[in-house]
Write a structure and sequence with these properties.
By secondary structure, the chain is of the alpha+beta class. 39% of the residues lie in helices and 21% in strands. It has a 5-stranded antiparallel β-sheet with strand order 1-8-3-6-9, with helices on one face. The protein is globular, with a radius of gyration of 20 Å. The two termini are 31 Å apart.
Length: 265
């Protein structure tokens, strides 16, 4: 019998925790837009993936916008928050710490190949009470595929400084905003020079570089669903498609189409 998706954001039952005998468990949630799984942590690792829809995953001082062609590996004990940016079919894999496909204590962006996607779907339909051997085989294949799926990341660094938090949260919500650092200085009560210094100290980059990260992160789900690049560029505040493509290639060394199709052909 297929796993019945949850339609709420409350914690999953403790019985769904992975064990050495069942190292990969799947939690399905079908959620509306603007739902939030509040920040929490657990002893096992997690792959956050949406079959449909776009989610934002926040871990520590970093956030990622995740379309269906991507997933995020969250290591054991890492405190994380997941927000749905649109109606989403979440499929979270809980992975026992001893079976973790990555050993570094850091998040990994994953390219979800057609094989990995179908394995996740198959696991959601498996009934361990009827065919435990099938679940075991699927789990082994998923772990192997995960270990081969690391992809270039589009990560957005998050600030700790209060004034920058206001500025950055507004820009994440509206990446096409054309407000300059001088404009923002009037809104957050700090001089342009102070804001520039805070960006360098807190985020390790200047305002323009950080805004570029945000725009590229928002571009991911738009490109993944096949939206024309000219429309993506306009929606994110770029003057032209060529300007957007040039910035993307400068950042990642590849055109947008190559970047998103390399692991999904």
């Amino acid at each position: 019998m297929s796993l019945q998706p949850l339609t709420h954001t409350r914690p999953a039952q403790p019985a769904m925790a992975p064990t050495p005998q069942r190292p990969v468990r799947l939690i399905a949630r079908d959620l509306a837009a603007s739902e939030l799984l509040v920040a929490h942590s657990h002893a096992w690792g997690q792959v956050t993936y949406a079959l449909e829809g776009v989610v934002r995953v926040t871990v520590g001082n970093s956030t990622w916008i995740v379309p269906p062609l991507r997933a995020i590996w969250i290591p054991p004990q890492a405190r994380h928050e997941v927000a749905t940016l649109e109606k989403s079919r979440l499929r979270a894999l809980y992975v026992h710490a001893d079976a973790a496909p990555f050993q570094r204590p850091e998040c990994e962006v994953l390219a979800v190949s057609p094989l990995l996607r179908e394995l996740i779907v198959a696991l959601s339909q498996a009934d361990a009470d009827v065919d435990a051997a099938r679940e075991t085989l699927l789990a082994a294949l998923i772990l192997d595929e995960l270990s081969r799926s690391a992809a270039p990341a589009i990560r957005v660094a998050l600030p700790n400084e209060k004034r920058l938090k206001t500025l950055c949260s507004t820009l994440i919500a509206d990446p096409a905003s054309s407000l300059t650092l001088r404009d923002w200085s009037h809104r957050v009560g700090a001089s342009e020079r102070t804001l520039a210094r805070l960006f360098e100290q807190d985020l390790g980059m200047n305002f323009g570089q950080w805004r570029q990260q945000v725009r590229l992160a928002h571009a991911a789900p738009l490109i993944a669903r096949g939206q024309p690049l000219a429309q993506v560029a306009a929606e994110l505040g770029y003057a032209s498609q060529s300007a957007f493509s040039a910035m993307f290639k400068k950042t990642f060394g590849q055109s947008p189409s190559t970047f998103f199709m390399q692991k999904n052909a």
